Amino acid sequence: MVEGNEAGGRGHALVTGASSGIGAAIVRHLLAEGWAVTGVARREARFDHPAYCAITADLSEPAGCGKVLAEAKGVTAFVHAAGFLATGRLGELDHAAAAGMWKLHVEAAERLANGLLPGFAPGGRIVLIGSRTATGSAGRSQYAATKAALVAMARSWAIELAPSGITANVVAPAATETAMLSDPARGAVTPRLPPIGRYIQPDEVAGAVAFLLAPGAAAITGQVLTICGGSSL
């Protein structure tokens, strides 16, 4: 059983996708800000910090989500950063890949948030990592659909949870400089360089997540914070 560590004075955050990329950046940022963090990933995500605990689980399976809910106690914030990208144009879509993305991006978020909510008090936080492509992107329709579903889910939860003082938001980055940029699964769909002339950095996404978890963001709920370097202009 993983309990909230007393070293985390800000609260206890459960972060999925903690082994790499945006998820790992979020873990590092929150630990530096004084949070206790439980990191979840398919392979053990190691961080040398007294306020950090790891859970190894495959969140694309109900049993993996069940393991997390059984082991993580005292959670006050849930950040869902686990994900992967599979591409394909209409007429060549891989339905198995679509099902895999839906299970990891959407179903896992739903199962974990649903199981964690009974332990949340006023001030609880839910942040889902979406994508700028949620509004549509050629060659990424299946991925975009799962990220659009996260927006709909977070906005619905925000309406339900507002009276209890719990917020739900989405952070939606454009192309971020992680291993996913060079993933062969992208196929011919190449990342677009934002107008600022560089890719978004994982630490920049982590900073936005930390802001939404902070007390000063208590009135922000049901929103999509897009970090795109001007790509949406």
List keywords for this structure.
single chain; 233 residues; alpha/beta; 5 helices; 7 strands; globular
Q: How are the SSEs placed, and which strands pair?
A:
Blueprint (H helix, E strand, L loop, with lengths): L11 E5 L4 H12 L3 E6 L10 E5 L5 H10 L5 E4 L14 H22 L8 E5 L11 H21 L5 E7 L28 H12 L10 E4 L6
By helix and strand content, what is the structural category?
Answer: alpha/beta
Largest sheet: 7 strands, parallel
Number of strands: 7
Any low-confidence stretches, pLDDT <50, length ≥5?
A: none
Listing every helix as H and every strand as E from the N terminus to the C terminus, the arrangement reads EHEEHEHEHEHE
Helix content: 25-40%
Cα Rg: 17 Å
The backbone outline, from C-alpha atoms, is globular
User: Helical segment tally?
Assistant: 5
Kindly, what is the distance between the CA atoms of the first and last residues, rounded to a whole number of angstroms? 46 Å
The main sheet orders its strands as 3-2-1-4-5-6-7
The pLDDT mean sits at 92
- Strand content is 15-25%
